[in-house]
Each structure stands twice: as C-alpha cells, then as structure tokens.
Amino acid sequence: MVALDYPEAAGAEKLLRELEGIPCFMKVGMQLYYAAGPAFVSALKERGYSVFLDLKMHDIPNTVKGGSNSITKLGVDVFNVHAAGGRAMMEAALEGVEAALTAGAKRPSVIAVTQLTSTSQAVLNDEIGIVGPVEEAVLRYARLAREAGLNGVVASPQEVVAIKAACGNDFQTITPGIRPAGADIGDQSRIMTPAQAITVGTDYMVIGRPITGAPSPREALESIIKELMAV
Ligand SMILES: O=c1ccn([C@@H]2O[C@H](COP(=O)(O)O)[C@@H](O)[C@H]2O)c(=O)[nH]1
Fold first, then answer.
1. Does this entry carry the keyword Disulfide bond (predicted)?
2. pTM of the model
3. Which of 45, 59, 77, 203 is catalytic?
C-alpha cells in the first residue's frame, strides 16, 4: 500500500503516473483527503485503483456510524477507525457500513488502528499513560476489534506474529513502519524492513516516504518488490 501523503492532488497524480502498471493499493490519508476530498477518492476508484482510506475515525459511536456510511458509499476497499474508541464505536462503524450496503455500496474491510507505529514503549507508558509492554496494548485492542467484528488491525510488523496467534490467521494485519535497510526512520518507532515484515506474515505493508521521497519513486518501489520476491 503506497501512502499518497501529499498536500494536493497534483503531487499524488504525479506519483500515480510514475508508478503506473505496478499493482498496489493506494492509501489516502488525512493530508490528501482534507485537501482533495471525496472526489479524489471516487476518481481513484473509477480509474480502477484499490483504495485504503486512512482517516482513523475516533468519535462517539453515532458520529462514526455516519462517517462509515459516507465512506462506504465512496466505494473504498478498506477504511479504518481507532480501536481506542471502544467496542460500541467499532460496532457502530459496521452498522454504518451495513446501512450503505442496502443502498447498493460494496462491502469494505473495516480495520482498527491499535497503537500508532510512531509510539515507542516510553511514550506509551510515560506520556499516554498506558502501563505495560506495547505488544500487550496492541493485543488488547486487536482482540477488542475482532470481538466487535472488524476485519483486522493496523499495527507494527513487530506485532504481527502475536496478533495472528491471538486473533487468527484470517484477521488482517496492515503494517506501516516499514523501512528498507538504511532508509531514514523519520518519526516512526516500531519498524521492520520489507523482507522482515513479509517473513513475519504481514498481510499488507504501508509504505510512504521511502517511496515518495526517493529520487525515483518507481525504482524505490521496484527495489522493495525485488527484496520481497527474494524472501
Ligand atoms: O500506526 C500507523 C498508522 C498509520 N500510519 C500511516 O502510514 C503511513 C506511513 O508513512 P511512512 O512515510 O512510510 O512513514 C503514513 O501515511 C501514516 O499516516 C502510520 O505510519 N502508522
């Protein structure tokens, strides 16, 4: 999944042209969505892209239900909410999806964010105030998301093995925090290389700056794919 983190549609369009023909999901996050809006997302779908709309909803259940309903009508393949919103909020997201299906939309995967991959052990304990290891918090959220009926979670690849053991192999793992060897880590904390991530069994990797910030995004993505094929 390539993260289209751009301030406007033009930047994303340039990347789409550069990556043309390479099969991958396109992830639209807050920066691009707030600038280019639902029309950009619908246009991606009309052009045949698989789309992950990464808006990480976290609000009262009724509001998330409405948001999920609107997102489902855009025809995206995957969208997400924060597991920290609780079980009722995640169930409300699914109700929003169901209501859109009766209006003819297709069913997206609904995924819960566990702990952001930028969150370190120290930040979790000392700033956010959650005690215990990161993996324990991630698993608590993953189990809650599964009980609520969601399709999977966003987590670090470092937690994939434990999530699959706790929630089953069919429970999807979408993992940002991917950094090819030698790449700038930036604000990420819990990282793995693409080869390590595929070895632990991640279902989808989310990769942004190692591709978008490369002199040739196409060559960067092709090099990542080559790394994966060698595993
Ligand atoms: O826990 C999370 C959830 C979402 N993200 C998003 O993934 C990409 C990662 O981009 P990089 O440039 O490869 O760091 C970005 O859009 C985040 O919003 C995440 O990193 N961690």
1. no
2. 0.98
3. 59
Q: Is the CB of 209 under 6 A from ligand 1?
A: yes
List the catalytic residue out of 14, 45, 56, 65. Answer: 56
CB distance 111 to 150 below 8 Å:
yes
As a 3-state breakdown, the chain gives helix, strand, coil percent values, each rounded to 5, of 50, 15, 35
**Nearest Cα residue to atom 11 of ligand 1:** 208
The number of beta carbons lying within 10 Å of the beta carbon of residue 35 is 15
Residue-wise pLDDT tens digits, 67-103: 999 999 999 999 999 999 999 999 999 999 999 999 8
Distance 208 CA to ligand 1 centre (A): 7
ipTM over 0.90: yes
Axis crossing angle, helix 134-148 with helix 160-167, rounded to the nearest 10: 40
Domain ranges for the chain: 2-230
Which residue type sits at 81? V
Q: Can you name the residues that pair with 109 across neighbouring β-strands? A: 78
